[in-house]
Amino acid sequence: MSISEPKPDALYEKICKDYEDLIKTLPKGKGWWVQYVYNYNGFWLAPTVLKTSLLLNTYFETQPSDIFLASFIKSGTTWLKALMFSTVNRHRYTISDHYLLHHGPQSAFINLESQFDPSADLTHQPAPRLFATHLARTLLPPCITSCKFVYVCRDPKDVLISKWDFMNKIRSKDLAPLTLDEAFELFCQGVSESGPFWEHVLQYWNASLDSPDKVLFLKYEELKKQPEVELRKLAAFMGQPFTAEEVEKGWLKRL
């Protein structure tokens, strides 16, 4: 996301034109928070997310220390953001002046789908830069997939209910509310923002098997069941392992 040179207007306009031409050719399905989603390379995306995906593949540049949090929508992303940010910054703040006391976990990460700006320069942000995405792995630029990824997976039954409830809250008032029966059918068919669910999960699961040093696959339920074990695993993966002294002093319980 760090761009060293200003955005070329001609190139940006070409991508926008390509997007307008492309979206006319794609399969269309019922959206959960917008009227329609479009199937692009096997995954259903809202129009703005599709456009951003095209821009990412042209403009995004990484740094070796970047860390990405990936997940299907409503899989525990906010909790992971808080854990990851607190872990890598645990020597920067005290309990009384912690960043998260005054800002939500969402602000600690840059969301690729909603906050990507081709003209922004983030090269001076402290490392590791933290990014979040709901995009399937195959929709991300190759430069991103060479970085470290933390992926969190959640029981699909809970994902369905949480996503249905959340999407109805942000759904346009010009559209009729999405019923749970409709949401269930769409979810099972895979017609769901970022879906199909299992294809999304399996891409990151397979990547974690192929490159365990690059992709850490976590389960939401395991985090709830044994948070200290999973947190130690997370910290080590991000290059910030807890020392024996930190463990003895109860750092794992503070985060």
UniProtKB/TrEMBL annotation:
Q: Which Pfam families match?
A: Sulfotransfer_1
Q: Might you give the EC number(s) for this enzyme? A: 2.8.2.-
Q: Which Gene3D superfamilies does the annotation name?
A: P-loop containing nucleotide triphosphate hydrolases
**InterPro entries on file:** P-loop_NTPase (IPR027417), Sulfotransferase_dom (IPR000863)
Primary enzyme class = transferase
SUPFAM superfamilies with a match to the protein in the record: P-loop containing nucleoside triphosphate hydrolases (SSF52540)
Name recorded for this polypeptide: Sulfotransferase
The species this protein belongs to is Centaurea solstitialis
